[in-house]
Amino acid sequence: MTSAPPRLELSGLSKSFGAFRALRDVDLTVGAGEIHGLVGQNGCGKSTLVKILAGYHPPDRGGRILVDGRALATPVRPRDLRAAGIAIVHQDFGLVREKSVAENIAVGSFTTTRWARRVDWRAGERRAAELLERLDATWIDPARPVSALGPADRSIVAIARALRTQRPGEGLIVLDESTRALPKDSLEDFYRVLRGVVLRGGAALVVSHSLEEIRRITDRVTVLRDGSVVGRSVDTAGTSEQEIARRMLGRVVERRVHNRRETPRSGPPITVSGLTGRTVREVSMEIGPGEVVGLTGVAGAGWDEVPYLLTGARRPANGSVRTGRASVDLARAHSRDCIAAGIALLPEHRIDDGLALTLPVGENVTLPRVRLRGRPWLIGRGWQHAEVTSVLDDLGVRPRRPDIPVGQLSGGNQQKVMLGKWLAGRPELLVLHEPTQAVDVGAREDILRAISETAERGVAVVVASIQPADLAAVCDRVLIFRDGGIDGEITAPTEDAVVEAVYAAPSPSPRRKG
């Protein structure tokens, strides 16, 4: 009796872009009923592999893609992919917010009436309801607009659309960083739905930067480094996060603590007074030169609004900030006023708010200073070259090419470019919101080290994050927010102390822990 072939088998898959080899003879196997992980540092080739599967890139000659033992012609055509039962759920889910759940599920394959050849909306809603029932998600109304759904329900709609062309018990879903936008309290629902798909005979390939997620949800994992497989079908249950990270980086990863315990440099502090916004009420604080102050709390507590009110990205009802360069009335100021005062913001969403993806890396780095340093008749190339070279070297951006569009870089390298763009302007106050979100373990180390080194140069730093490990790694103090105000302060923070303070009962007055 012969065993069934793997659901997906990649054999000797390579991809070159000129002289650069993004993938080198990659082998990967996903069995029926399996959740298989794919991990690696940003820039290791994960995205290239997914784009080959999606038909966006053709592989080099010699590689093979087999689904249930049958070879797919390359470059892969979308209709062949659908016929083979493979669907890809990208990190932004690809949903149209203004359209209904049923319309999003049916997009590209609407059912029409027999005679008039018009779209049969009722048939579309019935089909959507059937798919949602397969996922045990009957609470989602097919007629409801996607904009009215929470992140977890949107992810379920994306999976339902992926199942549209698959027969029950067959097919493969490729999840390309699909949980990146989900809050932690929504992840379990997502995992439950995914497990249900696999238990019915389907299969999944989960591409993720989160080693915690990989160990929690997958059966086996394949590890890439520099375009090559360095760990094939590794059993995740018997492998630690540290071992997976060692394979990714090619070295042992230590739990480094970057925070500096020496006294910050002397000098007048950055002063924030009376900051009031949608979720923040009368927040005041001081950040000394060379000090790193963390902001955190539960969802809705207000800590995640502060970075944008403080930097002019959103206008508060009240509040001011004073730096060594200027005093800014934030209720009347624009972001350019804050930039002129030496305040820089690293926003949470780099793609939407932080980078011009179609512009080259070099132009992204120098863009905030072109008007200040250039002339109406001559921008000047010398200073731009010096700034860009310094950023690429100091932050380890790969590839080290200022001429390529920043959208072609991996997520971790995009984050480094965005950080470097503002560090090159020598700010007095650097404000960061979730600086290590959706980056791999190596890029995280680089970013946290850069934050510490920035503070050592005398820059005041604010880090707003829900990640206790990040806050413990770089912060001198952490302010705990509750109900729109500062409820507590932790000095010399540890991960456990941050978690305990965030979820502890409210205190009658701000408390200090250390």
Describe this protein's structure:
The radius of gyration is 25 Å and the shape is globular. The protein folds into four domains: 167 residues, Rossmann fold, CATH 3.40.50.300; 70 residues, no CATH class; 173 residues, P-loop containing nucleotide triphosphate hydrolases (Rossmann fold); 68 residues, no CATH class. It has a seven-stranded mixed sheet with strand order 16-17-18-13-19-20-21. Strands 6-7-8-3-9-10 form a six-stranded mixed sheet, sandwiched between helices. It has 514 residues and is an alpha/beta fold. A hairpin with a 2-residue loop joins strand 9 and strand 10.
Sequence-ordered SSE layout with sheet pairings:
Layout: E1 8-17, E2 20-30, E3 35-39, H1 46-53, E4 64-67, E5 70-71, H2 78-83, E6 86-89, H3 101-106, H4 121-134, H5 151-163, E7 172-176, H6 184-199, E8 203-207, H7 211-217, E9 220-225, E10 228-235, H8 241-249, E11 270-276, E12 283-287, E13 292-297, H9 306-310, E14 318-322, E15 327-329, H10 335-340, E16 343-346, H11 350-354, H12 361-366, H13 370-373, H14 382-395, H15 411-423, E17 429-433, H16 441-456, E18 460-464, H17 468-474, E19 477-482, E20 485-491, H18 495-503, E21 511-513
Parallel strand pairs: 3-8, 3-9, 6-7, 7-8, 13-18, 13-19, 16-17, 17-18, 20-21
Antiparallel strand pairs: 1-2, 1-4, 4-5, 9-10, 11-12, 11-14, 14-15, 19-20
Number of strands: 21
Rounded to an integer in angstroms, the radius of gyration calculated over CA atoms is 25 Å
**Secondary structure: helix percent:** 25-40%
Number of helices: 18
The biggest sheet amounts to: 7 strands, mixed
Q: Low-confidence parts, pLDDT < 50 over ≥5 residues?
A: 507-512
Instruction: Write out the CATH superfamily name of the largest domain.
Output: P-loop containing nucleotide triphosphate hydrolases
Structural class: alpha/beta
**How many domain regions?**
4
Give the second-level CATH assignment, the architecture of the largest domain: 3-Layer(aba) Sandwich
Strand content: 15-25%
CATH fold label of the largest domain = Rossmann fold
